[in-house]
Amino acid sequence: MLTVHVLRIELGKSYRVVVDLLSEMPGVLEEIGLTRLPHYTVLRMWFERIPTKTWRAFLGASAEKRTGHAAIDSTGFDRDQPIRHYANRTNYRVRALKVTALVDVETLYITDIHSTTSKKHDAKIGPQVARRNAGDLRSLAADRGYDAKAFRDELRENGIRPLIKHRIMNPLDHAHNARMDGDRYHQRSMSETVFSSIKRTLGSAVRARSWWLEFREMLLKATVYNLRRSVRFP
Q1: Structure pTM?
Q2: pLDDT by residue (tens digit) across 107-130?
Q3: Fold (CATH) for 65-208
């Protein structure tokens, strides 16, 4: 089911159309071990039933190459306009999904994803993502939106070098920024490169109609991006 859903995201098709297409692909069915195609409603049910931690593990497994030098950044993905009845029934008001990605700056693999429909500040999201991946990180680059002393202190406690520019509040902040490893810090732009690639090839919107399924859809988009990269750069 994980593989079929990856194909769904890769092809950019609906559940029904993916099942129809797979019915004409016996070689693909044999490769993934499906002896009988499920009904498209079963495919949708499994997308909801498989727990988020499994989708996270799937993303982690797809990020084959990691150096420990990462960057964190966020962007917005449009939420497809639902039908009016659904929007009124579910109080569907937020039009964008804020997505934060942890990207290895040398291999460009996505190692973690955070999604929210709230206006949660980057300085609150950053520690949550870094904490989950502390064992794999050696340095973390981020822009001034992640500037928080508590965040830097937590990174250092976990043996991670923070590469986060200080907001200029006094002359000492200039000195802190000047001492930063410029080459490593400027690699944080690799996050923007990755986001641009995902939006260009997999779309800049999410289609699921609830935020927790939208989050899973973003995990799948990131997984498909990693798998494509592993094929291009084995």
Answers
A1: 0.87
A2: 999 999 999 988 889 999 999 999
A3: Nucleotidyltransferase; domain 5 (3.30.420)
